[in-house]
Specification:
- With 260 residues, this protein is mainly alpha-helical.
- The chain has 13 helices and three strands; from the N terminus they run H-H-H-E-E-E-H-H-H-H-H-H-H-H-H-H.
- Bound molecules: zinc ion (ZN).
Length: 260
């Protein structure tokens, strides 16, 4: 056990000294994050009910992979999961696991709205917001045991917190804005109309007025205001003109009917 800890700390120190972007604080290397994600995803799987329709799962996976292909982490394994739940929500855990509720698919009006929500969640993973949060909340001594599988109770706690939309799932305003910004870029380069992110937010705000309990958890973890939507629109306005962007596609409408 002592031997196993040494390389982890070395990797961590390397990651700390090489990861030079701004004031980002992360004690977990990318390799460790993917290991941790595999553990947390097993706990998530015990706490949710998955949609088992192969067409729905395949479409969500294809949208996700198309966006991921535009990110610096395209070469790592990503997994896209569809949760059978009418609540409108999506979330990501460390290590490339992205979860979309059937309620979000059914609330989305077109492919670009689903792509907008997914691009935002994928961007939280790419910007490593979740492991930054975990690093701040837990020290290196706890995390070393967690990543080596010696602390399953912490993994369970992480999974439960993320699902419940607890402290760990709540990102700062700056992190939300970064995920919006990256998400718009990834959508655009993947060929999806980035306007979908704006109209998805508008769809969510409309739901908040008509059916607040359906979006409670989403808004708890993703505070959405008119000014946030204006910021996203301002980023879209700066993009070059491009024709042929996908706003909707037949496959989306097919699975949209299947989850209804
Ligand atoms: Zn977010």
């Amino acid at each position: 056990m002592k031997h196993a800890k040494i390389p982890l700390i070395v990797i961590t120190l390397l990651a700390l000294s090489c990861g030079g972007s701004g004031g980002d604080f992360n004690l977990i290397s990318v390799e460790e994050e993917w290991q941790l994600g595999a553990q947390i995803s097993q706990d998530v799987a015990r706490q949710v009910r998955f949609n088992t329709d192969p067409a729905v799962n395949e479409y969500v996976r294809s949208v996700g992979q198309r966006i991921v292909a535009q990110t610096p982490y395209a070469n790592l394994p990503w997994e896209f999961h569809v949760i059978e739940d009418p609540e409108i929500n999506a979330f990501a855990i460390p290590g490339g696991h992205v979860y979309v509720n059937t309620g979000l698919i059914s609330a989305a009006h077109n492919a670009s709205e689903l792509a907008g929500a997914m691009a935002h969640e994928i961007s939280h993973v790419v910007a490593r917001h979740s492991t930054e949060q975990i690093s701040r909340q837990y020290g290196l001594s706890v995390l070393a045991g967690v990543v080596l599988g010696q602390n399953p109770s912490v993994v369970q706690e992480l999974a439960a917190q993320i699902i419940a939309g607890g402290a760990l799932a709540k990102y700062s305003r700056a992190a939300e804005s970064e995920a919006d910004e990256l998400g718009v870029q990834f959508m655009f380069s993947a060929g999806y109309n980035p306007r979908g992110m704006v109209t998805m937010f508008e769809t969510l705000l409309a739901q908040q007025r008509s059916n607040p309990s359906r979006v409670e958890r989403f808004f708890a973890t993703h505070p959405t205001t008119d000014s946030r939507i204006r910021d996203v629109q301002a980023r879209i306005d700066k993009l070059p003109q491009r024709t042929g962007l996908i706003t909707d596609e037949a496959e989306f409408q097919q699975i949209h009917r299947r989850v209804a």
